[in-house]
Amino acid sequence: MAEYIKLIDVTKCTGCRGCQVACKQWNSLPAEKTMFTGSLQNPKDLSYNTWTLIRYDEVVKDGRLNWVMRHDACLHCDWPACAKACPSPGALVKTDEGAVVHNAKYCIGCKACIAACPFDIPRNNPELEKMAKCTLCYDRITEGKKPACVTACPTGCLAFGPKEEMIEKAHKRAEEVGGLIYPNNPKYETHVLYILPAGIQASDLQHTNPNPSMPLSVLLWKNLFKPFTLIGIGAVAGGAFLHYLIKGPHKVHEKKEGGE
Amino acid sequence: MSAHDSNLVRITDVEERLVHWVLAASCLFCLISGIGLMYHSWSIIPTLLGGHYAAKMMHIYSGVIFTGMLFYSAYLWKKDCRFEESDLQWVLKAGGYLWPVENLPPVYKYNAGQKAFFWCLIGCGAVISVTGFLMWLWNPVSVPIIIGRLSYMLHAGAVVVLAAFIMIHIYLGTAGNPGTVSAMITGYVTRAWCETHCPRWYAERSKKPEQAA
Question: Is residue A256 over pLDDT 70?
């Protein structure tokens, strides 16, 4: 199965929120009660029922106002921190297509994925004790269709296709508009790429991680503490057994019995 | 074994033994269910407990009991486990636990190793309890992500230290020192055991027998 990438050309986004609605429709997610917070961004943040959100940023660069609309959803890491942190087998899985998919059936609501995610994407439902996020429409892409958001996008801002093809397209387009590709960490690849408008950096925009990586805390937890829990227990048990065999137990000499 | 057996000395009371075993049971349950949740390859443990969600909830409730008992044990044993000068001498001579040593400084009730275990339990246990409550009750919407991140990491890190020390504690309290385990079961140990393991406490106790036991 080929690996896919969702390419988001931020320069072409008009903020119509068609992707936001298509995501809700395909995934049967209920609408949320919203309120005006001084921005067109609505709702204010991703949630258990909002897996895709257009974020509106007003960035002033060189005295010029840039109004940046960015499609925000799961970036589907190649080495997903959320799946690494997840304690329940099958609840968060990276598929061959590159999608990181959650399965509510196995989710135990521990929130480990939320703490692990370098992009702050997973959201928790405290009542249901379940997490949820974008699945890259895994149920569509395995049927040869594009994700719902990509299908709905009227401007060509969203594109979906084989990994190599999309990477090539991203570099070509980035050069064309003179913008940067985000995320841009060769050691932490994602299956979602952004082309940012010229002069705009990831750090100028809300809810981005300019230098994404596997969090150190997750590495220490899963690659050091996790193995050493059993190694420590095993080493002490083995050591105790050897001590018993070689030195023997520390006996108390009973006076009555005379002893040795 | 009875209190009237002249060869026996009562070294722990019912309260101490109850606290010890409720703490031990909740701690071991948390350790085993936690290993089952941390290692996917040990998912047989959560499966036996009724699935991963049930294992998580039982881990949490057992952790609440552990936290309560941790406070109780700190209150109960903090005086007996206060370090004193002779503890250093004891440590330098390796305590006679692992190999025979002569002229050990006489121990009061608990030796330096036991005291170290107690304070490690209180320290690591406090880290585990605080981070455990945070992971359970943490609301990612209103609390910074770093709190959650540190909690999961420190929870696992403190367990590495505590789990290894618990294994040492179990070995030295049972097979490594025959005659010791009864202190936490019946509450009685032999006079000879006292002369070996807690001579100062035993001598003081013998001076005023009407107060002891």
Answer: no
Query: Does B196 touch chain A if contact means CB atoms closer than 8 Å?
Result: yes
Cα–Cα nearest to A44, from A66, A72, A64: A72
- pLDDT (0 to 100) of residue B6: 75
Asked if A250's CB is within 8 angstroms of B53's CB, the reply is no
Residue B1 has pLDDT above 70, yes or no: no
Q: Judge whether B3 lies within some domain.
A: no
On whether any CB of chain A is under 8 Å from the CB of B2, the answer is no
CATH code for the domain of B165: 1.20.950.20
Question: Using 50, 70 and 90 to split pLDDT, how confident is the model at A203?
Answer: very high
Asked if B192's CB is within 8 angstroms of A253's CB, the reply is yes
Number of domains present in the structure of chain B: 1
- B160 and A87 within 8 Å at the Cβ level: the answer is no
Q: Which of residues 100 through 129 in chain B touch A, CB cutoff 8 A?
A: none
Reported as a single tens digit per residue, the pLDDT across B182-204 is 999 999 999 999 988 888 999 88
Interface touch A229/B148, C-beta < 8 Å:
no
* B96 close contact with A: CB closer than 8 A: yes
Range of the domain at B40: 8-207
Strands, E assignment, chain B? 8-10, 188-190
Span of B81-90, B151-160, B170-179 with lowest mean pLDDT: B81-90
CB contact (8 A) between residue B140 and residue A250: no
Q: Give the other-Cβ count within 10 Å of B19's Cβ.
A: 19
Nearest to B152 among A115, A123, A253 (CB): A115
Query: If we measure between CA atoms, which residue out of B208, B197, B92, B149 comes closest to residue A251?
Result: B197
In a domain, B196, yes or no: yes
- Chain B: give the shortest CA distance to residue A187, in Å: 21
Judged by CB atoms closer than 8 Å, whether chains meet at A233 and B178 is answered as no
CA distances from B111 to A63, B84, B94, B95 (A): 72, 10, 11, 8
ipTM for the whole complex: 0.90
pTM of the model as a whole:
0.91
| Three-point CA angle A32, A38, A42, nearest 5° | 25
The 10s digit of each residue's pLDDT in A215-250 is: 999 999 999 999 999 999 999 999 999 999 998 888
